[in-house]
Amino acid sequence: MLNYILAFAEGGVTIQWNIVGLSVAVMAGMAVVLGAVILLVNKFCHVETDPKIDEIYENLPHANCGGCGYAGCSDFAKALAEGKVPATKCGQLKGDSVAKIASILGVEIADEGPTVTVIACCGGNKANDKFEYQGYCDCQYENMLSGGRKACSTACLGDGNCKAVCPENCIEIVDGCAVVNTDLCTSCGVCHGACPKSLMERIPSTAHYYVACSSKCRGKDVMGQCKVGCIACGLCARNCPNGAITMVDNLPKIDYSKCTNCGICASKCPRKCILSTKKD
Amino acid sequence: MNILPIILAAVLSNNFVLIQFLGICPFLGVSQKVDSALGMGIAVTFVMVLTCLVTYPIYNYVLVPLGLAYLEIIVFIFVIASLVQILEMVLKKFIPALYSSMGIYLPLITTNCAILGVAELVLTETLVTGLFEAVLYGLFAGVGFTLAIVLLAGLREKLDKLPLAKCLKGFPATMIASCFMAMAFYAFSLI
User: Fold this and answer.
1) Same domain, A119 and A152
2) Window A:36-95, CB contacts with B under 8 Å
3) How is residue A46 annotated by DSSP?
4) pLDDT tens readout for residues A111-162
5) What value, to the nearest 5°, has the Cα angle with vertex B40 and ends B34 and B42?
6) Residue A139 sits in the same domain as residue A264
7) Which of A23, A31, A41 sits opposite B90 (nearest CB)?
8) What value, to the nearest 5°, has the Cα angle with vertex A214 and ends A92 and A149?
9) Which ipTM did the prediction report?
10) What distance in Å separates residue B90's CA from the closest CA in chain A?
11) Rounded to an integer, what distance in angstroms lies between the CA atom of residue A85 and that of residue A82?
12) Which of B149, B22, B48 lies closest to B106, judged by CA?
């Protein structure tokens, strides 16, 4: 090969231009013939697709994030046109697009308003470890090992699977716990599938406060597992002026239709596990 | 006419998957279930027939007379890719049922080595003397592929139900099973 290149550089090799031309001509001829055949076949064999699919596709976010479980927005549009899924499956759809898609499909879709995703855990380094994990830094792998190193079975492991998949790069690991920057979050839902603990929750984007704990254990047990976990004292529920908070399974549940973002619950919480999405 | 030797060679003694080790990717990838294995086998057979039908004349009546035989691989890839494209469109229009059952496999096998292999091997096969034999060779090469993949799919369905050791379950057991299949088929080439 090297000898050939050297000989070529010295002009010792003559290029047989007639053969080069012949090869190019044969390839070009075949390209033209096959291209023409494909064009003709495409013209004669064009299959009419449902025009609704294109219209719906125009109204989708075109982010191709895959959060709906389909292979991109065009696949989702097809499923929508066939009535297989509701449009609300797409977390990124904003109000008027939902209404437009609903009118194309001729169905009523209850508009719940835009949402954002929050992570219902604030433990991180404040949650106790039950053993030292030295494996691969991946939540799924760690979770396979007896549910991860955290004493609390519903604690964020902080290995950042959600951070890795987030298409908007809005998740950060702060002090060993994932935190969503809700200003950037489009609620696409990709991280929901990535978390082995299913800690992601959707709240209305107008809401400020959310419960950052998922432990359904009794208060005494939580005390031994985590410094910031909810101990189900019920102070938030008792002090809420609008009665928006109820205690369900040892956790407060905020009814966002009643919440006025007053922040009393967060200030009363002795464990500081009701957090605000808005930075002060 | 040497029809019978061609059939025996293509299906058994020179089986594309188990003797020549071509097309291993779909052989291991699409053999979880007998149904999908059969679909894949039929799609491969279809494309192999078409490939032989087109590439054999192109080689013998275009490339050889022009002295461009060394362009065969690039020309074959080119032709096969276009053919599959055309076939897909025609099927979508005229036989939508077949398209929906076979359509997903068609783009997958465009650049499969078994397809390119049949285009190449049909030229060197001494039994093949004309276009008819070439097409026959392509057809039965496809039948041989279908036979191998359906046999493996049947074995895998049974293997999944066996109480195997965890380290053997799934892919390792499949590899061992296909190894034994290849050894069994090797006996045909000794005849």
Assistant:
1) yes
2) 37-38, 41-42, 44-47
3) P
4) 567 788 999 999 889 999 999 988 888 999 899 888 899 999 999 999 999 9
5) 100
6) yes
7) A41
8) 110
9) 0.72
10) 6
11) 8
12) B48
Contact B75 A38 (CB under 8 A): no
CA distance, residue A35 to nearest chain B CA (Å): 8
How far is the C-alpha of A101 from the C-alpha of A52, rounded, in Å? 9
Q: Distance between alpha carbon B159 and the CA centroid of its chain, in Å? A: 24
- Number of domains chain B is built from: 1
* Amino acid occupying residue A41: V
Q: Which residues pair with A129 in a beta bridge?
A: A150
What confidence score (pLDDT) does residue A66 get? Answer: 73
Give the C-alpha separation, B131 to A156, whole Å.
Answer: 66
> Collapsing DSSP states into helix, strand and coil, what is residue A210?
strand
- Partner residue opposite B85 with nearest CB, options A22, A30, A38: A38
What's at A38, amino acid-wise? I
pLDDT in tens, A167-222: 888 999 989 999 999 888 888 888 888 899 989 988 888 888 999 999 998 888 89
> Distance, in angstroms, between A16 CA and closest chain B CA?
13
Q: Are residues A131 and A270 in the same domain?
A: yes
User: Residue B79 corresponds to which amino acid?
Assistant: V
pTM, rounded to two decimals: 0.55
The count of domains in chain A is: 2
Q: Does A15 touch chain B (CB under 8 A)?
A: no
pLDDT above 90 covers a percentage of chain A that reads: 24
Question: Where a domain ends, among A81, A105, A129?
Answer: A105
pLDDT in tens, B157-173: 998 888 888 888 888 99
Which structural domain, as residue segments, surrounds residue B124? 3-190
Q: How confident is the model at residue A96 (pLDDT cuts 50, 70, 90)?
A: confident
A153 lies in which domain range?
A: 115-276
Give the CATH number for residue A188. Answer: 3.30.70.20
